[in-house]
Amino acid sequence: MKHLLSAIALLFAFTAIAQSGNFKKIPAVEIKNLNGQTVTSTDVIQNGEAPIVLSFWATWCKPCVTELNAIKEVYEEWQAETGVKLIAISIDDPRNAARVKPFIKGQMWEYDIYIDENSDLRRAMNVNNIPHTFLLNGKGEVLWQHTGYIPGDEDKLLTLIRKVAKDGTL
Protein backbone atom coordinates (compact mmCIF):
# COMPACT_ATOMS: atom_id res chain seq x y z
CA MET A 1 0.00 0.00 0.00
CA LYS A 2 2.86 2.34 0.88
CA HIS A 3 4.47 1.74 -2.54
CA LEU A 4 1.16 2.33 -4.29
CA LEU A 5 0.74 5.70 -2.58
CA SER A 6 4.32 6.62 -3.46
CA ALA A 7 3.72 5.67 -7.09
CA ILE A 8 0.54 7.75 -7.22
CA ALA A 9 2.31 10.74 -5.66
CA LEU A 10 5.13 10.39 -8.18
CA LEU A 11 2.63 10.23 -11.04
CA PHE A 12 0.95 13.43 -9.84
CA ALA A 13 4.34 15.14 -9.56
CA PHE A 14 5.25 14.24 -13.14
CA THR A 15 1.83 15.37 -14.35
CA ALA A 16 2.21 18.72 -12.58
CA ILE A 17 5.64 19.23 -14.12
CA ALA A 18 4.33 18.43 -17.60
CA GLN A 19 1.39 20.80 -17.22
CA SER A 20 3.52 23.64 -15.89
CA GLY A 21 5.13 24.05 -19.31
CA ASN A 22 8.45 22.52 -18.30
CA PHE A 23 8.82 20.47 -21.46
CA LYS A 24 11.48 20.44 -24.09
CA LYS A 25 9.84 19.11 -27.25
CA ILE A 26 6.54 20.04 -28.84
CA PRO A 27 3.97 17.31 -28.14
CA ALA A 28 2.56 15.31 -31.06
CA VAL A 29 -1.04 16.51 -31.28
CA GLU A 30 -3.47 16.61 -34.19
CA ILE A 31 -4.31 20.04 -35.60
CA LYS A 32 -5.85 21.12 -38.92
CA ASN A 33 -4.44 23.04 -41.82
CA LEU A 34 -6.53 25.74 -43.50
CA ASN A 35 -8.01 23.17 -45.89
CA GLY A 36 -9.41 21.17 -42.96
CA GLN A 37 -6.91 18.34 -43.28
CA THR A 38 -5.60 16.83 -40.06
CA VAL A 39 -1.85 17.03 -39.51
CA THR A 40 0.39 16.34 -36.53
CA SER A 41 1.98 19.28 -34.74
CA THR A 42 5.42 17.65 -34.75
CA ASP A 43 5.26 17.24 -38.53
CA VAL A 44 4.63 20.93 -39.18
CA ILE A 45 7.05 22.25 -36.57
CA GLN A 46 10.32 21.53 -38.31
CA ASN A 47 12.75 24.03 -39.71
CA GLY A 48 16.13 22.32 -39.84
CA GLU A 49 18.45 24.41 -37.70
CA ALA A 50 16.59 27.71 -38.03
CA PRO A 51 14.45 29.11 -35.20
CA ILE A 52 10.68 28.71 -35.09
CA VAL A 53 8.18 31.13 -33.59
CA LEU A 54 4.96 29.42 -32.53
CA SER A 55 2.17 31.89 -31.86
CA PHE A 56 -1.18 30.92 -30.35
CA TRP A 57 -3.88 33.41 -31.37
CA ALA A 58 -7.59 33.78 -32.21
CA THR A 59 -9.56 35.93 -34.63
CA TRP A 60 -11.37 37.63 -31.73
CA CYS A 61 -8.13 38.49 -29.84
CA LYS A 62 -7.10 42.08 -30.65
CA PRO A 63 -3.62 41.87 -29.03
CA CYS A 64 -2.98 38.66 -31.01
CA VAL A 65 -3.85 40.34 -34.30
CA THR A 66 -1.81 43.41 -33.38
CA GLU A 67 1.23 41.25 -32.60
CA LEU A 68 0.97 39.20 -35.79
CA ASN A 69 0.50 42.36 -37.85
CA ALA A 70 3.56 43.96 -36.23
CA ILE A 71 5.63 40.91 -37.10
CA LYS A 72 4.17 40.86 -40.63
CA GLU A 73 5.84 44.21 -41.28
CA VAL A 74 9.33 42.80 -40.57
CA TYR A 75 8.87 39.06 -41.15
CA GLU A 76 10.51 38.98 -44.58
CA GLU A 77 13.60 40.70 -43.15
CA TRP A 78 13.66 38.31 -40.19
CA GLN A 79 13.51 35.33 -42.55
CA ALA A 80 16.31 36.68 -44.74
CA GLU A 81 18.53 37.33 -41.73
CA THR A 82 17.80 34.27 -39.54
CA GLY A 83 15.75 31.75 -41.54
CA VAL A 84 13.05 31.95 -38.86
CA LYS A 85 9.67 30.36 -39.54
CA LEU A 86 6.51 31.64 -37.86
CA ILE A 87 3.70 29.18 -37.29
CA ALA A 88 0.44 30.70 -36.06
CA ILE A 89 -1.95 28.35 -34.27
CA SER A 90 -5.52 29.59 -34.15
CA ILE A 91 -7.47 28.45 -31.11
CA ASP A 92 -10.79 29.44 -32.65
CA ASP A 93 -13.31 26.72 -31.79
CA PRO A 94 -15.27 24.72 -34.40
CA ARG A 95 -18.00 27.39 -34.54
CA ASN A 96 -15.48 30.08 -35.54
CA ALA A 97 -12.96 27.95 -37.46
CA ALA A 98 -14.57 28.76 -40.82
CA ARG A 99 -13.75 32.44 -40.21
CA VAL A 100 -10.01 31.85 -39.88
CA LYS A 101 -9.10 31.41 -43.57
CA PRO A 102 -10.90 34.56 -44.81
CA PHE A 103 -9.59 36.50 -41.81
CA ILE A 104 -6.00 35.56 -42.68
CA LYS A 105 -6.49 36.54 -46.32
CA GLY A 106 -7.75 39.92 -45.16
CA GLN A 107 -4.68 40.38 -42.96
CA MET A 108 -2.38 39.18 -45.77
CA TRP A 109 -0.33 37.05 -43.40
CA GLU A 110 2.31 34.88 -45.04
CA TYR A 111 2.74 32.64 -42.02
CA ASP A 112 2.05 28.93 -41.80
CA ILE A 113 -1.35 28.84 -40.10
CA TYR A 114 -3.07 25.91 -38.42
CA ILE A 115 -6.23 25.54 -36.37
CA ASP A 116 -6.40 23.86 -32.97
CA GLU A 117 -10.22 23.64 -32.89
CA ASN A 118 -10.41 21.30 -29.92
CA SER A 119 -7.59 23.04 -28.01
CA ASP A 120 -5.59 19.80 -27.81
CA LEU A 121 -2.25 21.46 -28.57
CA ARG A 122 -3.19 24.45 -26.45
CA ARG A 123 -3.80 22.21 -23.43
CA ALA A 124 -0.73 20.08 -24.10
CA MET A 125 1.43 23.21 -24.05
CA ASN A 126 -0.34 24.78 -21.09
CA VAL A 127 -1.49 27.86 -23.00
CA ASN A 128 -4.03 29.66 -20.84
CA ASN A 129 -3.96 33.21 -22.20
CA ILE A 130 -3.32 34.51 -25.68
CA PRO A 131 -1.35 35.74 -27.40
CA HIS A 132 1.11 33.14 -26.22
CA THR A 133 4.36 33.04 -28.16
CA PHE A 134 6.99 30.30 -28.05
CA LEU A 135 10.48 30.36 -29.50
CA LEU A 136 11.83 27.00 -30.56
CA ASN A 137 15.00 25.80 -32.14
CA GLY A 138 14.77 24.05 -35.51
CA LYS A 139 14.34 20.69 -33.77
CA GLY A 140 11.12 21.81 -32.12
CA GLU A 141 12.56 22.26 -28.62
CA VAL A 142 11.01 25.07 -26.59
CA LEU A 143 13.61 27.65 -25.58
CA TRP A 144 11.45 30.60 -24.49
CA GLN A 145 7.83 31.62 -24.12
CA HIS A 146 5.88 34.80 -23.48
CA THR A 147 2.23 35.67 -22.87
CA GLY A 148 0.59 38.93 -23.92
CA TYR A 149 1.69 41.65 -26.28
CA ILE A 150 2.74 45.25 -26.01
CA PRO A 151 4.26 47.23 -28.89
CA GLY A 152 7.98 46.56 -29.03
CA ASP A 153 7.75 42.92 -27.94
CA GLU A 154 8.61 41.95 -31.52
CA ASP A 155 11.99 43.71 -31.14
CA LYS A 156 12.77 41.66 -28.04
CA LEU A 157 11.68 38.53 -29.89
CA LEU A 158 14.01 39.33 -32.79
CA THR A 159 16.95 39.64 -30.40
CA LEU A 160 16.20 36.14 -29.11
CA ILE A 161 15.67 34.78 -32.63
CA ARG A 162 19.09 36.09 -33.65
CA LYS A 163 20.71 34.34 -30.71
CA VAL A 164 18.97 31.04 -31.52
CA ALA A 165 19.92 31.38 -35.20
CA LYS A 166 23.54 31.94 -34.22
CA ASP A 167 23.98 29.52 -31.31
CA GLY A 168 20.99 27.19 -31.53
CA THR A 169 20.14 28.07 -27.93
CA LEU A 170 19.51 31.03 -25.63
Automatic annotation (TrEMBL):
The keyword Signal applies. Residues 20-166 form the Thioredoxin domain. Keywords: Signal. This is Thioredoxin domain-containing protein. Residues 1-18 form the signal peptide. It comes from the Bacteria. Gene3D superfamilies: Glutaredoxin. GO terms for molecular function: antioxidant activity; oxidoreductase activity. PROSITE patterns: THIOREDOXIN_2.
